[in-house]
Model the fold of this input.
Amino acid sequence: MASLDKISKGRAGWNAITSNPGGLANYSRSHLRKADLYPMKKEFLEIVEGLWDSYEDDAFIRDKKSGVFYDPGKMHPLHYTGNYFSVEGPLNISRSRQGRPVVFQAGTSMEFMDIAAQHAEIIMAPGDDFGYLKGIYC
Done:
């Protein structure tokens, strides 16, 4: 996603959805229960955002004359250990223009809303009644 965000000059977005338990078998996670999906999603989003922030905006100097490519003091490995994932980092790409792709999420459950409030820029919700949606999210 970070590469696509850079290639598109900040026009990429990511719909960070939670897979169904059946689809998790493709990622060696078929042993998880449905109750694991939201806690795992929260960890995953924390990791992705942490990796997107591996480098400060001005970490890559790219000065051919001096031979200085980047400032190692502006690189921050993630060192993340959770219940589902363990990731060292850093990401192998510099930040995009705006730092990271826009994150979308869809849902209406309380678990979803807690995660979306911390990680999403855009929430997609069903319904054609603004009052109903306002009651859910406000």
